[in-house]
Amino acid sequence: MTEAKYNKITWPLFLELISLPQKTTVLMPFLFGVVYAQYAFGRIDWLNTLIYFVGQFCIALFVSGFNHVQDFKKAKDLNYLKTTNVISRERLNPKQVMIFMLCLLATACLMGLILVLRTNLILLFIGGAAIAVAIFYTYGPFPLSRLPLGEILSGPVEGFGTIFIASFVNMPHLPITLDFHSGWILLLSINLPLLIQLMFVGMPFAIFDSSVMYADNICDLKQDIKNERFTLPFYLGQKKAVQLYPLWPASAFVFIIISVIFSYLPFWSLLSLLLLPYVIKNIKIFMKEQNKHTTFQTAINNLLFVGAAQILILLLCVLIPVSGF
């Protein structure tokens, strides 16, 4: 493929590269983290929130485009290259795509450094770890996406990590800090109860996010094997992987209940359990047929509907405290 034969990256192709329609799954934990900061800690720093939103969204877009490039380079299945991967299918210049993605990554890093200056040094390491996972998810001799680690990492990083940082940049008292003490000595301080609180309220989003990755990998299992990409469903086997799928959303609801019991979330958060029949219906649809184009959306819908319910409930609790919310 010579450079003269490369096609231009049009807006529709660019939107496909960054998988824009799927970014609503990133928006949910961000919104929850911001609203939760107001509900639990009574404070929103709108400038910090805007800076983090730009940085987080840039990282989310970078991950999608960067993954397309890496999958293009590592692909073994010719049919996948011809029909699925947007770079090879549309004859795009992978170097040009990579430049776009690196610009997004640079913007995200800049936003992160600004937030470090506005909050605490520990954010440099937290954000750096998240970016490292984003890069090495598909990059390197042993990318994380080709190991049974995608589901384990995607949820904590994209789900809980986003909620943690969205809350962190708004909190008056930070759950974890790293400061210089007596010259060049670094002193790490952890408010464990506060850290546990954030972990419990963030777990439902982390689990639903992981379930989306899990469902995605089940749908792509045959194609992944051809491309020598061995995810968790490969090691479990198609049948076992599908049988275990309902455990993901079930455990998410368990954490919502626990968070209410310990008053991390308001009692009204239990109203999200009314969505359980809808979630079960989606689970049954997916378990009957695992198809990327028809039933995979049910996993995303579970995250979106339960996430939106949690955000709306918290928002009502913030806006109507007199009414018992």
From TrEMBL:
Keywords associated with the record: Membrane, Menaquinone biosynthesis, Transferase, Transmembrane, Transmembrane helix
A Pfam family reported for this protein in Swiss-Prot or TrEMBL: UbiA
Coiled coil start-end: none
GO molecular function, one term: prenyltransferase activity
Membrane topology value: Multi-pass membrane protein
CDD domains recorded: PT_UbiA_UBIAD1
Subcellular location, principal: membrane
Pathway field: Quinol/quinone metabolism; menaquinone biosynthesis
Compartments it resides in: Membrane
GO-annotated biological processes: menaquinone biosynthetic process; vitamin K biosynthetic process
Gene3D superfamilies linked to this entry: UbiA prenyltransferase
Bilayer-spanning residue ranges: 20-39, 46-66, 97-116, 121-140, 152-171, 183-207, 252-279, 300-322
Signal peptide from the UniProt entry: none
InterPro entries, A to Z: UbiA_prenyltransferase, UbiA_sf, UBIAD1
Name this protein carries in UniProt: Prenyltransferase
Gene (UniProt): ubiA
